[in-house]
Amino acid sequence: MQGLCFLPAFLVIWSSSTFIISYLIAIFRHDVDLIFPYISDTGANPPESCIFGLMTFISACAGIVTIYARYKFVEKLSEETGMVGPCVNKTALVFGLISCVAMCIVATFQETTVTVVHDIGALLFFVSGVLYIIVQSVISYQAYPFGSSVWVCRARVTIASLAALAFFPTVICAFFVKQTTLHRDKGDQDYPFHVASAVCEWIVAFSFICFFLTYIDDFKLFTLQVKTEYQE
């Protein structure tokens, strides 16, 4: 594989597998409803909670490496072209790292045991994640025609817009969901809010994955090297 394209490729495949595997196990064990569970619901009970926690932690680590590699790529691009401000690039890096740390919080503190900490981590993950892909979309246009094609830039804006639009009903509708049980009944008064919130949550999560998918071509253009020096 050319350059560092294996980083976003691994992140996309692993993160998708994390959501899908925990969902399938939870469905097989009848721990959640088949239609529209929250992502966190699929990783609330063992053994899927163990798998979800481990795989999410690995996704967070892969995310940190990928986000940092993207930061260094844009930094080098900025040095050569001067088209992207260093403050914008550093802002994206901070948002990305916060999102990855929040992902670890979500994976470590299950919603059925430490609900408040889990919810704070989830909110932080979605807020910082959406802000990260928005800033990166801006960076893509600022760096054009270096790095990404115009079609990739447009794809990133579309994905970022979709994630931003889906984020608001995810949070707003969640405030109207009163029950915290993993199994829901269509006759529940807050069921429509649960469905809207859960569907939008899945949209935001896979928007992040699709966004990193657009990194693959960019990451073919560069490599990173570690330089070791002895101090006298």
From TrEMBL:
Domain CWH43-like N-terminal: 5-220
GO biological process, one term: regulation of autophagy
Major place of residence: membrane
Key words, A-Z: Membrane, Transmembrane, Transmembrane helix
Topology of the protein relative to the lipid bilayer: Multi-pass membrane protein
Subcellular location(s) of the protein: Endomembrane system
Bilayer-spanning residue ranges: 6-28, 49-71, 91-109, 121-139, 159-177, 198-216
GO CC list: endomembrane system; lysosome
A Pfam cross-reference name: Frag1
Family: Belongs to the DRAM/TMEM150 family.
Descriptive protein name: DNA damage-regulated autophagy modulator protein 1
